[in-house]
């Protein structure tokens, strides 16, 4: 088999040419793990007047109480300036707030510094968003002290389980990470966001039709860092392709968490062994007992692979728990939160432990694919000869998907 270098693998940016910068919320309070808390925060904002409302809003250079912006595509709610807004809270929507952390958001562009309306226009039940996770930073790559029975939570960085370089979600991604690449450029699963001619070229090599979701699955399984950015080795070997797509589809299913609830093999599943307190102040991990400890509350078994799972150097379970237990500054809208730990959070946590464990178990299969993915390589040179590359400029921008008027600031109509 000929050796293949990173330079022989096409870049993700060429294979999925339309990408959007990550949305930027700008303030923490319009997103939360609990939708009822968001409605209570909105009501508190509406009851405040004058300078008090502006203080609660937490203005930024992009959004103040006087900022005029339009309605988010497909959403309801007012468009008057927040200084004189009234009425009920727009219905919160589910979003991906951080890796594997599904929270709720008030879908009001007046509250969001950079909402990226082009993403909202193509968000539906068929859409899959890929999010580049970036690299580890000092914030996430810190070393956490070794846990003991009743001791500090965490594990040393050397024991971490590296997460995927690409996150996949069916929800609007509101992460502060890398670029977002929708699978489809139009609603309803229309016009895949792939280099024009790529699927046809793969079909000719593999001898059967290659749907866009299979290309996405392959990318998720084999993507790797390259000199020019994330690279995706392509193969014309049908057996290798099928193996990569199988792993990638499994990863997509676990990350999107849609459909049947995932379960650990052998009937081994995490349970609540002791009831969680109403407001657990801290969360600790007992590595010997494989247990998450919420004061007297206890969940087990929690495999070390789940606790050690990190995305871009950030421990997923530790961050998920911190988002629900860390105290907020008194007097702020963030301080409005559930009085008691909701049962729904416990159910989400149990499922997340299962998901992270199953994803960690896929790492050996991904590693085995790393060498096999170079079999019968389809190189950038070949794609250029076939006319797939370079990608036309039009493919780098969003498609025109407007099929109705969108309301602009102060009730004006917007045409796009």
Question: What does this protein structure show overall?
Answer:
The protein has 416 residues and is α+β, with helices and mostly antiparallel strands. It has one domain. The chain is 28% helix and 16% strand. The chain has twelve helices and 22 strands. The protein has a four-stranded mixed β-sheet with strand order 1-3-2-7. A four-stranded antiparallel β-sheet has the order 14-17-16-15, with no helix packed on it. It has a three-stranded antiparallel β-sheet with strand order 6-4-8. The longest helix has 19 residues. It is flat and about 65 Å long. The N and C termini lie far apart (51 Å).
Descriptive terms for the model:
416 residues, alpha+beta, four-stranded mixed β-sheet, four-stranded antiparallel β-sheet, 12 helices, 22 strands, 16% strand, disordered N terminus
């Amino acid at each position: 088999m000929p050796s293949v270098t990173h330079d022989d693998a096409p870049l993700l940016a060429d294979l999925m040419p339309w990408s959007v910068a990550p949305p930027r919320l700008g303030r923490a309070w319009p997103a939360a793990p609990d939708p009822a808390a968001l409605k209570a925060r909105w009501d508190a904002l509406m009851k405040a007047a004058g300078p008090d409302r502006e203080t609660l809003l937490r203005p930024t250079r992009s959004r103040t109480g006087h900022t005029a912006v339009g309605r988010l595509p497909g959403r309801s709610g007012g468009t008057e300036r927040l200084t004189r807004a009234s009425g009920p809270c727009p219905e919160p929507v589910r979003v991906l707030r951080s890796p594997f952390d599904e929270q709720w958001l008030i879908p009001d562009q007046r509250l969001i510094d950079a909402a990226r309306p082009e993403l909202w226009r193509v968000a539906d039940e068929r859409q899959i968003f890929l999010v580049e996770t970036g690299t580890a930073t000092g914030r996430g790559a810190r070393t956490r002290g070794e846990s003991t029975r009743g001791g500090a939570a965490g594990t040393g960085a050397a024991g971490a389980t590296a997460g995927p370089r690409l996150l996949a979600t069916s929800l609007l991604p509101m992460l502060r990470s890398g670029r977002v690449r929708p699978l489809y450029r139009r609603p309803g699963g229309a016009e895949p966001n792939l280099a024009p001619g790529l699927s046809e070229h793969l079909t000719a090599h593999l001898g059967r039709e290659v749907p866009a979701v299979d290309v996405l699955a392959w990318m998720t399984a084999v993507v790797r860092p390259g000199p020019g950015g994330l690279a995706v080795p392509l193969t014309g070997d049908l057996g290798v392709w099928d193996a990569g797509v199988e792993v990638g589809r499994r990863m997509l299913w676990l990350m999107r968490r849609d459909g049947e609830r995932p379960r650990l093999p052998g009937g081994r599943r995490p349970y609540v062994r002791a009831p969680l307190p109403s407001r657990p102040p801290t969360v600790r991990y007992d590595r010997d007992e494989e247990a998450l400890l919420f004061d007297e509350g206890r969940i087990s078994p929690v495999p070390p692979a789940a606790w050690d799972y990190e995305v871009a150097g950030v421990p997923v379970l530790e961050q998920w728990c911190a988002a629900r237990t860390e105290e907020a500054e008194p007097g702020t809208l963030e301080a409005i939160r559930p009085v008691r730990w909701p049962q729904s959070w416990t159910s989400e946590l149990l499922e997340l432990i299962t998901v992270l464990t199953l994803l960690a178990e896929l790492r050996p299969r991904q590693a085995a694919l790393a060498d096999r993915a170079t079999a019968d390589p389809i190189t950038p040179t070949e794609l250029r000869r076939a006319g797939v590359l370079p990608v036309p400029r039009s493919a780098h921008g969003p498609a025109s998907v407007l099929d109705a008027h969108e309301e602009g600031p102060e009730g004006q109509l917007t045409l796009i």
